[in-house]
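Entry 14. Ran structure prediction on the chain below.
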Amino acid sequence: MTLTYPLTVLSTRAAVETKKAQVSLSTAVAKILKDEGLSGLYSGLSSSLVGIAVTNAVFYYGYEETKAILLRARHRGGKTAGVQTISTLESILSSVIAGSITTIATNPLWLIQTRQATKRASKRDETGGEEGKPQAKQLGMLGAMMDIIKNDGGVKALWKGIGPALVLVINPVLQYTAFEQFSRLLLAFRDTRTSRRPLSDLDIFWLGALAKLFATGITYPYVLVKSRLHASTHQYSSSLGALTEIIRTEGISGLYKGIAPKLMQSVSTAAFLFVFQRRVFELVKLVLKLQLLRSQRKAI
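Output, structure tokens:
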């Protein structure tokens, strides 16, 4: 998250931009560095790190609990007693339930993160300067939360954008389904060429990246609507109304403002996670091996 965060800032700011003319990534970066310095590319990083930690903790806890409930229900029904695995459909259902719980629980954190990432670039300064002039001081997490509660309608405002956020729960479901289909296509292609090699780590990495591109491309309009609602730059009656309004005023391309840095961020994050996960895994194995050898020597 830390390494790819500047792309998150660029994507979010492009998504909430009201101007029809879009600027290039290099121009956007240069403008932020000129107006706000390097720290501008990391506006809201602290709340983002808290958000991703809480999101993962809540999601995996919710997923495991949902899976356990499904297994207990299956055993009570006398079906496949003793089996500790769930089907693909049950896994998808568990993901949707866990994702929905996570979204409701963590929406305030992501709302604060979006507000921090965009407030500095969109709010007029107190001296009456031009729109877009950076604030003298960036909002902290607590300051952003109090600003939302004070100016956006109380505590309930912390759940702004919950509608499109819940729709985005299908993103990992689409990614999982796409990954399975792409994997089958690749294996079928290899079968026709008499090369029945199993999927390698590199194959899985690229298939995962492709699946993520597919899922993000389909769901990005809802990412855009959520960002605008979180940033309070636009007011929409509903998610569907928002999509209709964007198409009417900005055209189809308006639904995909900021998608380039978003896709770059998604793929880059997947790449870093893949590399770091392997290194951490090997390190953990080495530590466990050393501990085992130490305990054996003590026993001798």
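Residues 5-299 form a domain with the Mitochondrial carrier fold fold (CATH 1.50.40.10). Will compare against last week's run tomorrow.
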